[in-house]
What we know:
It is built from six helices and seven strands. By secondary structure, it is an alpha+beta fold. One guanosine-5'-monophosphate is lined by residues 16, 21, 43-44, 82-84, 93, 96-97, 100.
Amino acid sequence: VVCVAEDFDFFYFVQQWPGSYCDTKKSCCYPTTGKPAADFGIHGLWPNYKDGSYPSNCDPNNPFDQSEISDLRSSMQKEWPTLACPSGSGIEFWTHEWEKHGTCSESVIDQHGYFAAALNLKKKLNLLQALESAGIQPNGDSYSLGNIKDTVKSATGFTPFIECNVDESGNSQLYQVYFCVDTSGSDLIECPVFPHGKCGSQIEFPSF
Ligand code: 5GP
Ligand code: 5GP
């Protein structure tokens, strides 16, 4: 029996709502491949410790190598688009996520496994569909934070952490949604610890 020592306790799987990234004072830039679909995009899969701290930049000798994930590239462009300025193809974002976070899980999953795990989690969760089926639509309306969380919990089986940011007028809005995943990167778990941060009790869900 071969044992692998894991140097983290669980992952956060983090998705971002593009409408809320873009309608801020800072604004956004669409990727060179064009405006992404109006769907949650992947931000990252982040190794974490149960005490709330996390490792980062764990292995400078294991840089991002796009040749290892060439079969995932078109899915990544759709499901993991970059919105930072200036416009990029995604390579810069994926490089950052792999080097800062992914290298800290390399004892469990390699680069291909890491990106494939994130893509599978997004598909499995189908977050936008879960919200829309309950009438929570990205149309600029405000929804109760409790209702959003209950809806996601009953659709997916897991309690999410909702992170808010503010639009140009200062309204609190749904920005990122966190789920917790076991160290294999494949199974969702209830979060051992939640990140910090506060939304209003009513938050906007802007269009994109
Ligand atoms: P922010 O300051 O915007 O919350 O986070 C900036 C970056 O720090 C995130 O994009 C992520 O890379 C990292 N980060 C923030 N909070 C956590 C956390 O709880 N766990 C991990 N692994 N990374 C985090
Ligand atoms: P983290 O917050 O995970 O440490 O890293 C986010 C980094 O990726 C930032 O340097 C940010 O500029 C870059 N980045 C590129 N595209 C995106 C995007 O679409 N969303 C976010 N949150 N960061 C992006």
